[in-house]
Amino acid sequence: MGEIIVEIDLVNTSDRDNAEHGMIAPSAVRSARIPAVVDTGAVSMALPADVVNDLGLPIIDRASTQMADGTTVTLPIAGSLGVRIQGRVMDTDCIVVPLGAEALIGVVAMERMDLIPDPKNQVLSARPESPDLPLLRL
Description:
The chain has helices spanning 13-20, 49-55, 107-113, and strands at 5-12, 31-38, 46-48, 59-66, 72-85, 88-97, 104-105, 115-118, 123-126. By secondary structure, it is α+β, with helices and mostly antiparallel strands. Strands 1, 2, 3, 4, 5, 6 and 7 form a seven-stranded mixed beta sheet that branches. Strands 8-9 form a two-stranded antiparallel sheet. The longest helix is centred in the first third of the chain and has 8 residues, at 13-20.
C-alpha cells in the first residue's frame, strides 16, 4: 500500500466573491494548484505557509494540534478557501503548517466531498454510490 497524492485546486474565497460581484477582475483572484497527500489520520486540511501567503488568506484563529509523532504544537488557522478535488468542491479553513511541509487532505474534506481513498491502488475517487454528486448524510 502506498501514499496517495492528488492535485488540488485552491482559491481565495474573498477574491472569488469579489470577482463575482464585479469588485475585482477575475484575473485578480488568487488561486493555486498543488499536490496534496491524502491523510486519513488527519482531521483538517493543512497547507504550507507559503501557499497560504500566496493565496492571501488571513489568519482567523489558532489551535493546539497533535502531530503524527504525538507532539502537540499551536498552529495558525487560515481561511476561507475554496477547494476542488476530483471535480468536487467545498469552502473551508486550513491549518497552516511550516514552509516546506506537505499539504494534507484530512477526513473532513473527504467526507464533505464524498471521496474515498484506495491506498492499494493509490487513488482518491468519488464513492461508487454517488458518482455525480456528493451524497451527504444528515
